[in-house]
């Protein structure tokens, strides 16, 4: 069943009207016909089962058959504070972490970031990242597209700790396994900030500042993972253990 995120203003009176690039996808790429069914999402967690009633060059119309709450959205909301990486690695992180279930992304400028200037992440790049996230959300059956913010500094990130039930940071130093930290959390955290460092990890000063701010360092095991691997593995473990 094909899934499409569209603006909720295009959903009303039991009908759906699609007018953007998805018209080409439905008509020319997927070669769908009237009577075919699709799932439409308004990015609020509601999904609509709809039957195509009209397909033209400029728009696609569908009749809503059923609506329900999307059941694939995690209860645990993970915000991934990811150190800035190369474009290719960031795209990988955004795509795979969306599939896993991350709720939002915040790129962070760190001492060892390959990209150190926020202006390097242009509006065009952010737009491309948002497209990758949206497509991954459609493909993986998400009900809400994870949000993506513009890059911030570590100081700005640390000022947001109060917004979370627990803050975690991946570390290669001797520290508790992630599973142990999660098992000791009472009550179960619903909002989690997850910090993943750059290639080479966070600096000693950054780790000290994070720990001093109440962020709990965790280990993913005896093997050293690439940053883009850790960014995917850690949320997967969190959601598995808590849900």
Write the layout of secondary structure elements.
Layout: E1 3-5, E2 11-12, E3 15-18, H1 22-29, E4 37-41, E5 46-55, E6 60-69, E7 77-83, H2 87-100, E8 104-109, H3 123-139, E9 147-148, E10 152-153, H4 154-158, E11 166-170, H5 178-183, E12 191-196, H6 204-212, E13 216-218, H7 227-242
Parallel strand pairs: 1-4, 7-8, 7-12, 8-9, 8-10, 11-12, 11-13
Antiparallel strand pairs: 2-3, 3-6, 4-5, 5-6
Domain count: the total is 2
- State the CATH superfamily name of the largest domain: SPOUT methyltransferase, trefoil knot domain
What's the CATH topology label of the largest domain?
Alpha/beta knot
Uncertain stretches of 5 or more adjacent residues: none
Cα gyration radius (Å) = 20 Å
- The class by helix and strand makeup works out as alpha/beta
Q: What percent of residues adopt helix (DSSP H or I)? A: 25-40%
